[in-house]
Amino acid sequence: MALEFVGIDPNTDRDHCPTVWADAEAQEILLQGWKPSPETRIGCEATSPANGPVPDDEAIVRIPARMIPMIREACDAVERARFR
Predict the structure, then answer these.
(1) CA atoms of 22 and 48, how far apart (whole Å)
(2) What backbone torsions phi and psi does residue 14 show, to the nearest 5 degrees?
(3) Which structural domain, as residue segments, surrounds residue 8?
(4) CB atoms < 10 A from the CB of 18, how many?
(5) pTM of the model
(6) Residue 79: C-alpha distances to residues 28, 41, 62, 67, 84 (Å)
(7) What is the DSSP code string of 17-77?
(8) pLDDT beneath 50: ranges in the chain
């Protein structure tokens, strides 16, 4: 697995911070973020009833909007690798 660090929340304290990576080989984007409150998790599950509850091996994470450029960059990195 060759992970490419894309970016970290610019407002971070460098200790607990949302982060974005791209794994071009696996064609995946990895996100580190804050765990949502139980109420938010329930709300997410309720808005997508076809999916049911979030499985134990999956997670919902919160990422601040200020990180959208980093997420786009990670998407671009994965896309570029796909066409090499």
Answers:
(1) 27
(2) 65, 10
(3) 3-82
(4) 20
(5) 0.80
(6) 10, 30, 23, 19, 9
(7) --EEEEETTTTEEEEE-BPPPHHHHHHHHHH-TTT-SPPTT----B--GGGHHHHHHHHHH
(8) none
Q: What is the pLDDT of residue 3?
A: 92
Lookup: tokens for 57 = 């091996």
Q: Please state the domain count of the chain.
A: 1
Burial string for 19-41 (b: 16+ CB within 10 Å, else e) reads: bbbbbbeeeebbbebeebeeeee
pLDDT computed for residue 1 by the predictor: 63
Report CA torsion sign: 32, 38, 39, 45.
positive
pLDDT at residue 81 in the model: 83
